[in-house]
Design brief:
heterodimer; A: about 70 residues; two-stranded antiparallel ribbon; about 25% strand; B: 12 strands; about 45% helix; disordered N terminus
């Protein structure tokens, strides 16, 4: 449970529903077309783990990967 | 007078939903959910000989397979109708397939990002309050006719830079195209012509006096070849924005208010916990998804193991997908705090609704402003809720009483 989480948005799958940005604005950013990518290298700061999973489980395109390091 | 020669025969009543479904049947309009359950129990893909042949995927998985498969399924026709006339009026990107789709869609995406919607939000909240001002003192209203209908019309007019007061005209065209047009080709063609003429005049005016609005943005847009996209493309996209941006969100806001009017526990909870409203909106979008799309089968294939043949249309029911219990636990229960919700109300794949951020912002503004000023309301027992027919579903009459019952 103590492992750090890392998130990644698959650019081929993202269609810009923007659910992740709405649920976890600290972890995701949108480009000029509204498509999402992870902030920085995708490392989830401590305390934001729930938001990372919430974003992952609300992406209609299954475009968000969450991995435990 | 309508041209009676173009009116198709009335549809006979359905006796066998699984082999002869009809999404314009009054029972489907009134309450489609048990019908979808019956179809889903029978097969992941069902077929009807109506509409010159049409499939319907009934599961989330089958809907997803079709939405992602642009090789076998074309978007050139996006409404299932009795007739399939020559395609004369395109509305890119919704009617586009790859490779034309991507550049057409990319033109429209920047004006509809969440950040762009934040700029529009104060005007939308003001529109909501202007509407509420008109009826709050009466103690009752038809929320569909007086409130939910006008919010998206005025918002999209504001974005496009056309007069908000032309809204009634837009609503008339949309009714003719999306409802009457399913069965009457002449009405549909006339509405498309009127709408095209209306926008052509706005293009002409902007050539003389450019303005700062979405119409001008589109007129200045360049295609992949670096050349302006041209009036035909601009007019097609404007038709799309008007048609797709109005009765869809009208329906989504209306269904949400309908649910809250008949579910006091949910209404009271959202008044108490307004921070839950965005989550509740996602659940309303899932449970009462307004938009069913269409595809046309171009090449033979199989979907969820079922053979699918060319020359048939596909009724691509995102609303039915969103009620599939294999994807959503307790799919038939509306749970306003549902945490995991990958609903497909705005479509899946490349045709994700370009206006989804606008729709969500309008829904949030409309429900928040309503609950602030009318926290207590209920269905009027003396009135009747009526629902739209066809591929966009939502309340078209929603009589409600304000204040506590008793």
């Amino acid at each position: 449970m103590s492992g750090k989480l890392k998130i990644h948005v698959d650019q081929d799958k993202c269609q810009g529903h923007a659910r992740c940005k709405s649920l976890a604005p600290e972890l995701f950013d949108l480009d000029e077309y509204g498509n999402a990518h992870e902030v920085g290298d995708g490392t989830v700061p401590a305390g934001f783990e729930d938001k990372a999973w919430l974003a992952q489980t609300n992406c209609p395109e299954f475009a968000i990967e969450v991995t435990e390091e | 007078m309508s041209d009676s020669t173009s009116i198709m025969p009335e549809h006979p009543p359905v006796n066998d939903w699984v082999n002869d479904f009809d999404h314009t049947d009054p029972r489907w309009t009134e309450n489609p959910f048990p019908i979808w359950e019956e179809l889903r129990a029978a097969s992941p893909v069902v077929h009807t000989a109506r509409f010159l042949g049409c499939y319907m995927p009934t599961t989330y998985q089958a809907v997803k397979e079709i939405a992602y498969d642009t090789e076998h399924f074309s978007s050139r026709r996006v409404i299932v109708r009795d007739v399939r006339p020559e395609i004369t009026a395109k509305a890119p990107p919704i009617t586009s397939d790859p490779p034309e789709h991507k550049p057409a869609k990319q033109l429209l995406l920047p004006p509809f990002t969440p950040d762009a919607m934040k700029k529009l939000e104060p005007r939308v909240r003001a529109i909501c309050n202007e509407l509420i001002d008109e009826f709050i003192a009466d103690g009752h209203c038809d929320a569909a006719a007086r409130y939910t209908k006008h919010i998206p019309v005025r918002a999209i007019a504001h974005m496009l830079g056309i007069p908000e007061k032309d809204g009634d005209l837009f609503i008339k065209w949309i009714h003719e195209i999306l409802e009457l047009g399913i069965k009457d080709d002449a009405i549909l063609m006339r509405a498309v012509q009127e709408m095209t003429g209306y926008f052509a005049a706005h293009l002409e005016a902007r050539r003389k006096n450019p303005t700062d609005d979405l119409i001008t943005t589109l007129m200045n847009a360049k295609g992949p070849d670096g050349q302006p996209i041209g009036d035909v493309h601009v007019l097609g996209s404007l038709r799309l924005l008007l048609i797709a941006g109005i009765d869809t969100t009208w329906s989504a806001i209306g269904s949400s208010l309908w649910h809250l009017a008949k579910t006091p526990a949910d209404r009271e909870r959202l008044v108490r916990e307004p921070e839950l409203i965005p989550t509740a909106i996602e659940e309303f979008l899932r449970a009462y998804s307004p938009v069913t799309m269409a595809r046309e089968v171009m090449k033979e294939t199989t979907i969820s193991g079922c053979p699918v043949k060319p020359n048939n249309m596909v009724l691509l029911s995102f609303p039915a997908a969103n009620r599939d219990p294999a994807m959503f636990p307790d799919a038939d229960k509306v749970m306003i705090d549902r945490k995991e919700n990958r609903h497909a109300a705005f479509g899946l794949g490349i045709h994700r609704c370009v206006g989804s951020n606008l729709a969500r912002m309008e829904m949030q503004a409309a429900i928040e402003e309503w609950l602030k000023r009318i926290p207590e309301f209920r269905l009027d027992p003396a009135g009747k809720v009526s629902w739209s027919e066809g591929t966009v579903r939502g309340p078209r009459a929603l009589p409600v009483l304000f204040g506590k019952a008793g």
